[in-house]
């Protein structure tokens, strides 16, 4: 048995986690002798999720793990060999399956580190290598990066609402899109800013802190609340959080205080109480007053019940005294945006003689959906404090002009010259070089810390939830001009 892959629950081989068309194209390329033509693809999304101003890049470590374990097992090949076309003939001939069996991953992969703040049209991943291989990766890379980035971004927004000092507990497994959805969501939620998860498998697999309280059924299993709390405190004398709203919330708080007094007499402190219904602003204020009056000002107040970033913001504005937010459904399902629309587009192909590049473009009726040709890098310009000011996409395969100008790809009249000598950093870093890993990945906790620094470095206007300011992402002028020429060359010029 292979070690359990980071990226999936079920299969010992995950080579078939793909859309059929990746394999039919692979066969076609192989048949045409195009399998080794060098190609460059970019993985990017066009619009930040949740009508927000940014996204937190996530999923790279899962993608690396998937890539490192990528091979077609005998079972995979037998299954592919069993597939038939409409005339009943095999879809894939044995010599192609033999080619897949011996296929070695030899691509270059450059990627934006997990936790980095990213914007529309910026490549999160750049894959350069043999056409057949680079194409084959599309679906799995999108599956991993889209969902991880979506949930990490949702968690970052919840962190924004909760503020830097409150705790955020992710409680969503029961509402997740299946086991793997729950597992991945717990990982991404932590990366984006949650402090812990109730999901025990995610704790084991990703080393996340696991936390929790107890359910209403615990209280209902005893004659009364005091007995229930006393029994829980016996089991966990230093790790108890009592759910106080089974019958009457404020009576529940009084019962919790009674038990907390007895615990204190025995040298133990109650950790917290949890509110799971009713007016959370009012009840948390009342509960805080009762607890403080009784000398329990360190007892935390956890709230849960369909929480999300706007509700948390509102509760704070109402003076709620909640310091720990249990967030489930809305976080792990990215409730108000079902998916991030990340795409994977071909941007360069080696010329047939192998010496130069053909830069490629996908046209669209909407200019915003037209792809960007080239072998792209993202350069992030910083102000004196090191805060991001503007990002520039440029083609690394052609020399950069002396004077740099950023052009808004959706409105060419919006341009910004780059101040000479302006500090910058480049977002894509080498992860694989010809199939060999060249980067040690940070730990998840390090990526989480990066995400917090990254979001904090953004202008609050870009971070706000309602109509956020658009962070400037421009094409370097010569790339913009080249792309315009390519659009004109590819688009049929019909007479009026
Ligand atoms: N002060 C508040 N301001 C705005 N929304 C609140 C406030 N207090 C609670 N809420 C939210 O209002 C919604 C109330 O939902 P609902 O009516 O289902 O809860 P409930 O009846 O209190 O709880 P339950 O059905 O679990 O007993 C929840 O999403 C909750 O988070
Ligand atoms: O509300 P979420 O953000 O999804 O957080 C998780 C929810 O799961 C639990 O109860 P559950 O919803 O199962 O039962 P309930 O009807 O008593 O709330 C918990 O008490 C929270 O309410
Ligand atoms: O530990 C908790 O309080 C918890 C866990 C999962 C879902 N709701 C609450
Ligand atoms: Mg509920």
From TrEMBL:
Its EC number is 6.3.4.21. GO terms for biological process: NAD+ biosynthetic process via the salvage pathway. CDD domains: NAPRTase_A. Residues 16-146 form the Nicotinate phosphoribosyltransferase N-terminal domain. InterPro entries: Aldolase_TIM, N/Namide_PRibTrfase, NAPRTase_C, NAPRTase_N, Nic_PRibTrfase-Fam, Nic_PRibTrfase_pncB, Nicotinate_pribotase-like_C. It catalyses: 5-phospho-alpha-D-ribose 1-diphosphate + nicotinate + ATP + H2O = nicotinate beta-D-ribonucleotide + ADP + phosphate + diphosphate. Keywords: Glycosyltransferase, Ligase, Phosphoprotein, Pyridine nucleotide biosynthesis, Transferase. It comes from the Bacteria. Residues 377-481 form the Nicotinate phosphoribosyltransferase C-terminal domain. Residues 170-351 form the Nicotinate/nicotinamide phosphoribosyltransferase domain. Transiently phosphorylated on a His residue during the reaction cycle. Phosphorylation strongly increases the affinity for substrates and increases the rate of nicotinate D-ribonucleotide production. Dephosphorylation regenerates the low-affinity form of the enzyme, leading to product release. Pathway: Cofactor biosynthesis; NAD(+) biosynthesis; nicotinate D-ribonucleotide from nicotinate: step 1/1. NCBIfam families: NAPRTase_put, PRK09243.1-2, PRK12484.1. Belongs to the NAPRTase family. This is Nicotinate phosphoribosyltransferase.
């Amino acid at each position: 048995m292979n070690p359990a892959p980071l990226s999936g629950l079920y299969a010992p081989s995950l080579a078939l986690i793909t859309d059929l068309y990746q394999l039919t194209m692979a066969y076609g390329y192989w048949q045409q002798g195009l399998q080794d033509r060098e190609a460059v693809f970019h993985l990017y999304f066009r619009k930040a999720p949740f009508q927000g101003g940014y996204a937190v890049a996530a999923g790279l470590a899962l993608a690396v793990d998937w890539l490192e374990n990528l091979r077609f097992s005998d079972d995979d090949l037998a299954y592919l060999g069993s597939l038939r076309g409409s005339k009943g003939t095999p879809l894939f001939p044995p010599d192609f399956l033999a080619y897949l069996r011996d296929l070695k991953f030899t691509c270059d992969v450059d990627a934006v580190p997990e936790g980095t703040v990213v914007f529309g049209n910026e490549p999160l991943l750049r894959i350069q290598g043999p056409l057949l291989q680079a194409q084959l990766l599309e679906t799995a890379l999108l599956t991993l990066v889209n969902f991880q980035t979506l949930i990490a971004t949702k968690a970052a927004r919840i962190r924004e609402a909760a503020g830097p000092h409150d705790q955020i507990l992710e409680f969503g497994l029961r509402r997740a899109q299946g086991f793997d959805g729950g597992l991945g969501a717990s990982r991404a939620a932590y990366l984006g800013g949650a402090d812990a998860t109730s999901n025990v498998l995610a704790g084991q697999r990703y080393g996340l802190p696991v936390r929790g309280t107890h359910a209403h059924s615990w209280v209902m299993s005893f004659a009364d609340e005091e007995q229930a709390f006393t029994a829980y405190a016996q089991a966990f004398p230093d790790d108890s959080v009592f759910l106080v709203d089974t019958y009457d919330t404020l009576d529940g708080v009084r019962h919790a205080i009674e038990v907390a007094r007895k615990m204190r007499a025995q040298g133990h402190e109650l950790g917290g109480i949890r509110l799971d219904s009713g007016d959370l602003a009012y009840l948390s204020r009342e509960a805080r007053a009762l607890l403080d009056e009784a000398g329990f000002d360190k007892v935390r107040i956890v709230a849960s019940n369909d929480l999300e970033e706007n509700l948390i913001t509102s509760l704070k504005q109402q003076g709620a005294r909640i310091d720990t937010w249990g967030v489930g459904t809305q976080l792990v399902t990215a409730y108000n945006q079902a998916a991030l629309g990340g795409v994977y587009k071909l941007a360069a192909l080696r010329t047939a003689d192998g010496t130069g590049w053909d830069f490629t473009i996908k046209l669209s009726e909407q200019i915003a959906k037209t792809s960007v040709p080239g072998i792209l890098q993202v350069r992030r310009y910083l102000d004196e404090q090191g805060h991001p000011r503007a990002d520039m996409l440029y083609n690394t395969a052609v020399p950069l002009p002396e004077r740099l100008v950023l052009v808004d790809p959706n409105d060419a009249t919006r341009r910004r010259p780059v101040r000479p000598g302006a500090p910058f950093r480049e977002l894509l870093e080498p992860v694989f070089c010809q199939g060999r890993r060249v980067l040690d990945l940070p730990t998840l906790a390090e990526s989480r810390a990066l995400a917090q620094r990254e979001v904090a470095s953004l202008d609050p206007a870009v971070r706000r939830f309602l109509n956020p300011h658009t962070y400037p992402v421009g094409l370097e002028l010569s790339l913009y001009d080249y792309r315009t020429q390519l659009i004109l060359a590819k688009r049929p010029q019909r007479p009026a």
